[in-house]
Design a protein that fits this description.
alpha+beta, Aminopeptidase, 8-stranded mixed β-sheet, 4 helices, 28% helix, globular, binds coenzyme A, transferase, GNAT_dom, Acyl_CoA_acyltransferase
Length: 167
């Protein structure tokens, strides 16, 4: 199922598309597109296998495109578990950063979760990822846990939580 973002939530010239239970025919091209995108932005150890992820029923993806094009400029991956949603991944291409794209992706997820009866969004973030931490703070996430060596030696993880009622 795909849905579009409501007007008023987006930076200009960006269109969001939400995909839940990705149809079989769309899985392969979408997995290829996301895989290519991730290679540029994340270390290979953090790359998802979207061929596997897109088969899962509770995985959702929100894509950000330049309006009128198929140019992917950002995306967010989450997993719904009853009243909780895990935000697994979020990224914006380098040339389009600081234009509000990631914030609009999180805002859209929050609105969708609110409508669907979800109460909380949680995530783990590497303490060293300052832009991501600043983004999540600007969206209202609060730190609830800190684990040293979570991502490997010397790499600390922070668990953050957002109350959906507040977005
Ligand atoms: C983190 C990331 C997703 C932010 O994307 P973005 O589209 O540039 O973020 P936005 O423009 O929506 O930023 C919204 C707010 O977050 C904060 N923020 C975002 N990037 C920031 C940065 N580099 N430095 C300081 N604050 C930042 C600011 O408060 C910003 O608002 P402002 O621009 O009005 O000051 C992007 O930098 C990225 O893809 N990084 C690599 C992947 C990553 O770390 N993902 C997160 C972990 S999975």
């Amino acid at each position: 199922m795909t849905t579009a973002a409501p007007v008023g939530l987006l930076p200009s010239a960006i269109v969001l598309q939400s995909i839940v239970a990705c149809p079989l025919k769309d899985r392969e091209p979408l997995a290829a597109k996301l895989g290519k995108f991730e290679k540029k932005l994340f270390p290979s150890s953090e790359a998802f296998d979207y061929g596997v992820e897109l088969k899962k029923k509770n995985i959702g993806i929100i894509l950000a495109f330049k309006e009128g094009t198929q140019e992917l400029v950002g995306y967010l991956v989450y997993q719904r578990q009853k009243s909780l949603a895990w935000l697994h991944k979020l990224a914006t291409i380098e040339q389009e950063r600081r234009k509000g794209i990631a914030k609009s992706l999180v805002g859209f997820l929050c609105q969708q979760m609110k409508k669907g009866g979800c109460r909380t969004i949680v995530l783990w973030v590497d303490e060293a990822r300052s832009p991501a931490r600043a983004l999540y703070a600007s969206c209202g996430f609060q730190q609830i846990e800190r684990l040293t060596d979570y991502y490997g030696p010397g790499r600390t993880a922070l668990k953050l939580e957002l109350n959906v009622a507040e977005c």
